[in-house]
Amino acid sequence: MFVRLKNLLGLGPAADDAGARGEAAAADFLRRRRGFAIVARNWRNPRDRREEIDLVARDGEVLVFIEVKTRAVGALVSGFHAVTSRKKSVLRRAATAYLRTLVAPPVTFRLDIVEVALPPGAAPEVQHYENAALFPKHFQP
Question: What burial letters (b/e) apply to 106-132, b meaning 16+ CB within 10 Å?
């Protein structure tokens, strides 16, 4: 019953596949076009598996936490605006947990949002939004 409901809502295997393709397209875009080094994919907090970071990368000396939003072409809500305050709260907790696992935390880190549209039969369309507001001004993990 639950699987059927997920499929009706577009949250089943097809949606999971689209999300994975979107994340792969985002990682490829960031690596090839922006020169990022991908450090981790789908990192989960070992203490709370609900807290996930889609991509962790390095942009020079900056550690970048990346939320990938895969959208249908012509979606009513952009990927940037789909990252709600609730989602940002989860991302902040996950980023804090990630930073605490590092022996030498970076001096600078930020959140980027990457929106990926997957038009049928065409190359993915990628929009990259750098430095989305997530951390308070004097944030310390």
Answer: eeebbbbbbbbbbeeeeebebbbbeeb
